[in-house]
Amino acid sequence: MNKFGVGEFLESDPFIAQNPFTTPSAPSTPIASAVTGDSVLLTWERPETDGGSEIDGYILEKRDKEGVRWTKCNKRRLNDLRFRCTGLTEGRYYQFRVLAENAGGVGEPSEPSEYIKVCEASYPPGPPTNPKVIDYSSRTVSLTWSRPIYDGGAAISGFAIEMKEAMEDEWITCTPNTGVENTNYTVMRLRENASYNFRIRAINAAGVGEPVDLPGTVVAAEKLEAPDIELDSALRKIVSVRACSTLRLFVTIRGRPEPEVKWSKEGGAFSERAQIEVTSSYTVLLIENVNRNDSGKYVLTVENYSGSKSAFINVRVLDSPSAPTNLKVMDVKRESVSISWEAPLIDGGAKISHYIVEKREEARKAFTSVCSNCMRNSYKIDNLQEGCFYYFRVLAVNEFGTGLPALITDAVKVSEAPLPPGRITLSHITCNSASISWEKPDHDGGSKIIYYVVEMQAKGDNTWTTCSEGKAHEVTVNGLAKGKEYLFRVSAVNEKGKSEPKSLLVPITVNDTSAQPIINLLSNIFSVKAGNDLKVDVPFKGVPPPTVEWKKDGNLLKETSRVNVYTSDTSSQLTIKDATRIDAGMYEVTVANSVGTTSIEIHINVFERPGPPSELNVDEVSADFISLSWQPPHYTGGCEISNYVVEKRDTGSTIWQAVSATVARTSIKIPRLTQGTEYQFRIASENRYGKSQFAESQHIVAQYPFKPPGPPINLLVVNASKSIMVVAWCKPESDGGSPIIGYHIECKDQSSILWKKLNRNLLTENQFKVTSVEEGLIYEFRVYAENMAGVGPCSKASQPVAARDQCDPPSSLTVTNVTNSSVSLSWDKPEYDGGAKITGYVVERKQHPDSCWLKCNFTNLLDTFLEVTGLEEGEQYDFRVIAKNSAELFSAPSETTGAVTVQHDVEPPKITMEDKFRQAVVVKAGELLRIDADISGRPNPTVFWLKNGRNICTKGRVEIIATKTHTSLLIRESVRKDSGHATSDSMTICWKRPATDGGSRISGYIIEKREKQGVRWGRVNKKPVYDLRVKASCLHEGCEYEFRVIDPTFLPSPPAKPIIVDSSRCSITLSWNKPLFDGGAAVTGYKVEYRKSTEDDWAVGAHNTDKTEFAVTGLTPGAVYIFIVRSINKIGISEPSPETEPEVAMEREEEPRYEISPEMRKTLIVKDGSSFTLTVPFSGKPVPSVTWDKANVDLRVRGLVNTYNSVTSITVEGATRDDSGKYIVKLQNVVGSTSLTLNVRVLDSPGPESKKQQKHRKQKDNCVKMKCFPL
Question: In what residue span(s) does the Ig-like domain sit (predicted)?
């Protein structure tokens, strides 16, 4: 338009009135992660185009699988590329999509995600650990491994084993699709002599995890192994077993192929009762109802193609001995027999204490004891009846009883060759003959005289000539030469033989002379019954007629009205009227004339009833019998006592009752008495002439000499579940004087007052399995003991125990850190809590080599980790954990950690990262940057994060997370300035092949490193490498390192110098540390050798032990020994370790000392009425004696003291204020003594006021305070 008007319009192209940009494109499909039971974390990428306008935010929508509508997950617009959607229902499936929004509006939705199940997340597990071959053959290979360290958040359901031949690439699965549950498996149907590779995968609900390869290849070849026998330490000693019990010899064997087993008995045949069981790994010899004949040396021989080996076991059956051997008669006299014997071949496992000698007359059936305590191997049996036939036997006795008898099979007649004839008298002499006479022998030897032999010898001649043989006591010898001198002698002959000859004292000259007196008495022994008359006629002759003199017991005989002597020219007669005991004795008759004197001794016995027995004693008293013994009477009545008469009476009655009238011995056991009744006994001696007066005993009450037993002790429930309970207890402290014959057990519900008996029959064992329990109820138990006297009082009731299952023990007990005074532990909760919540844990430790388990925590521990402090540096400890649930039930102990040495376990820090973090990490601006790394080291390392050489701290967008084993760096909404450079922590090591491969292909290389200032080599590569270079990572900047390359397997290095930890008279115990270098193969065992310090030859104490401690036995007491140890791996045996210091085989002596923690030295606080226990572990050699003491209190009465070899405790029930104070425990042995004071405080209400306090209170009460209030 101008001043002239409006011009023509200029028209534009048509266009729409709208924003100059469009809505953004769709974002990427959301990706779900970190799924829990009610939420899902979703992440996505930005849209490819933002529509020309910056993205303002995102909208996240979800849809249930069973629904059709999409609903928003976020109430506010999302600015981040991730979002956790919460409030989801567990177990349902959801689908998600994302929409981007800018100034132009909301864009298209992304592709929906896969349906996601809302549940606790799980992932495939990690690889198993520690795979190894435990056995192989031409067709099989047996593998074992450990469970993976990481289970992916779900339980491991099985393991899959894969194999391939070494020259092939394809892996073949050996197990079913579901895998195997155990951590061992035997692969079957392999090709003989083929080489195989194996790998193992773990399986859980999320799938199959990563594999772990078995190192090296395995050749399927038959394993040859020489047979070997492993005898338990108990079998190396003499195995003792009681008679009538069962002998079980269990011996471990091994060998390839399976060896042939043979049992034998040295010097004898096997018992028909022997049962032999043989497997590939052990053999058992079982003999039931053993007896003394089963004693001996048993030899076990195993043999296969590789050789043979034998071992022997000495068995001793504790029984009464066998019969004595070589029993024989040594000598027979007229009143005695001497016998001898040798010791039994089998002593029954105990020393023969004595022998019992018994005799039996031929006419009797029962043996009677002659000597019940013979200490020698011979015995003379006196006081036998002359002329009788006897049998004899001998029995050996040891501590287990009387053995079998040895018997003389043929009867022995008690007789001997007769004595020489009596005095020989010359009766008459002529010019060619001589008449001689003689008296009978003083004793015929117990057998009748058959005849007499008369012999003569002319003077100057050396030979005797038999003149006569006959029964007469007189003979006339004719044909003698006049004037010549002759000697005569006479011998008596019976069935036992010929007596010694009786010679005429002087030679006879054949001429007519006067003769000295001669007494012709046939017998010089006369017997008479008391009250009867006796005549003794003594004929004699002599020229000129002799005179006669009588003597009694060496004195001239005094004639009385009863005793008279009548003498003639040819005889002298002694007459005794009404003979009495005083008439018995030895009489001597002397006949004399001018030629000579002759005398003879005459023995007169007066037979009558004996005197009463002497020394009547009561040997044993019981409720139904009484044992009596006595001595024979001082006067036997002139003949042997035939028997004794025993009578009894009740003291309430005057009537005597016969017990026995035929007692042969001087003792008797009187049965069938009434318990509690008072008795009196009397005994009389009896011979063939009558019965003596009675000897009476004092009054005796028939009752047991013992009482019912005391209550059983230490009653506790050793095992409890919802269906059974096992109750155990100890014997009473007092058995009442009689052995315990059994027990009775009762139980009741804790809420009940009625006790119920559980056993029908008497219990002989010290434990009982209760099956009649109801789940959830709480039970108490009590036990009674019974002996011959009856049932004793009941024990204290056991602690209440609920009928619930025991919870599982904690698992995965590991040592997380070790210092010079502490050990840090961690563990996992039990898989099964027994139906009640886990409420705490008890950690226990045991010091090596020999100690008991002690508590480490004295308060309830809720955490699954604990640092155990107060340990001794350099000592070795075992640890275990016990779980406790809310039902007050304890689990079984967990697996132990193994020996842990308390010392600074220094290990340089190590960082393990994924390969993607070792390269440049690219992240978009605004996204989350996360770097993860695993760390290790001892002590626990301190974590620092650096960027470009400067420390990074948690601040704003930066967060550092660090645990003992892991660290993470998180940077949210990263920007450009977060870029940076990290210093390298790796090196590449190269080497050349060895000059020679030793005749076998190189199977790989192992690279080891150590810091220049260090001594321990560490592995760089876990698996052998086949290239000539390797990358060593996780190095420390600025540190200098040494590297070495070795073949995978060599001989191991020797262990460190062994140390002596204990000794006795016949053994020395030593321990050692593992070698620093295992040669590339696991150390399978150790060989222990020793020698005396004065010798050069080494003896083997152990060929292959897998422990690092061993006790060498069978040493000479007092000798000095030196020891070395060698390591063993599959390649062979290492060089010897340094020698130990010389050690003497002798019992060690150590002063007593206490092993308690500082916690126990604090004052123990106890509430009134509760119980408390003070437990004190100790040590010392020899084991010290223990005494507990408290001022003015006898703790043996107030408390229950239990003491074992290394721990003592005292338990006080129902504590009161009087139990407060100091408890002193004292230890003492031959080396020294020590004491420890423990303080106890009992919390109770205050005691009564003192007099001073009462007076003060009364004075205060007299003052009345008043306060007035206004109205």
Answer: 215-316, 517-605, 909-980, 1152-1237
Q: Which structural domain, as residue segments, surrounds residue 1127?
A: 1059-1145
**Does an H or E element contain 1260, and which?**
helix 1251-1261
pTM for this prediction: 0.29
- Token digits for 105? 């509006």
Residues 783, 826: one domain?
no
Q: Where a domain ends, among 870, 895, 920?
A: 895
On the question of pLDDT at 1247 being above 70, the answer is: no
Residue after which a domain boundary falls, among 1102, 1118, 1145:
1145
Say how far apart CA 758 and CA 936 lie, in whole Å. 58
CA separation for the pair 975, 946 (Å, rounded): 17
Does residue 1026 belong to any structural domain of this protein? no
439 contacts 519 by C-beta, under 8 angstroms: yes
| CA–CA gap between residue 25 and residue 99 (Å, rounded) | 9
Asked if residue 1066 is part of any domain, the answer here is: yes
201 & 286 share domain: no
> How far does Cα 1109 stand from its chain's mean position?
20
User: Are 1141 and 1159 in a shared domain?
Assistant: no
Judge whether 210 lies within some domain: yes
Site of tokens 């940076």: 980
**Residue type present at position 881:** V
Domain with residue 547: its CATH number is 2.60.40.10
Residue tagged 């791996």 (tokens): 1129
Which SS3 state, helix, strand or coil, does residue 114 take? coil
Pairwise CA distance, residues 770 & 779, whole Å = 11
Query: How far apart are alpha carbons 203 and 1236 in whole angstroms?
Result: 57
Residue 1188: other Cβ atoms inside 10 A = 22
- The three-class DSSP label of residue 1255 is helix
The rounded distance, in Å, linking the Cα atoms of 1077 and 1080 is 8
Nearest by Cα to 30 from 40, 45, 20: 45
For residue 1160, give the 3-state DSSP assignment: helix
Same structural domain, 1130 and 1164? no
The answer to the question of residue 556 being in a domain is yes
- Binned at pLDDT 50, 70 and 90, residue 755 comes out as very high
Q: Is the dihedral of CA 950, 951, 953, 958 positive or negative?
A: positive
Cβ contact 1225:1186 at 8 Å = yes
Residues 6+ apart with CB under 8 A from 62: 70, 71, 73, 85, 94, 95, 96
The total domain count for the chain is 11
Q: Among 395, 365, 369, which residue's Cα sits nearest to residue 381?
A: 369
Q: Tell me, yes or no, whether 1139 and 1154 share the same domain.
A: no
Measuring CA to CA, which residue among 479, 482, 579, 467 is closest to residue 526?
A: 579
- Out of 330-334, 905-909, 1171-1175, the most confident range is 1171-1175
Residues 6 or more apart whose Cβ sits within 8 Å of residue 417 = 445, 494, 496, 497, 498, 499
Q: Assess whether 1175 and 1225 both reside in one domain.
A: yes
Name the burial class of residue 7, with classes exposed (0-12), middle (13-18) and buried (19+) by CB atoms within 10 angstroms of its CB: exposed
pLDDT at 7 over 90: no
Q: Which residues pair with 865 in a beta bridge?
A: 826
Indicate if the pLDDT at residue 394 is higher than 90.
Answer: yes
Write down the pLDDT at residue 732.
Answer: 93
- Same domain for 1182 and 1213, yes or no, is yes
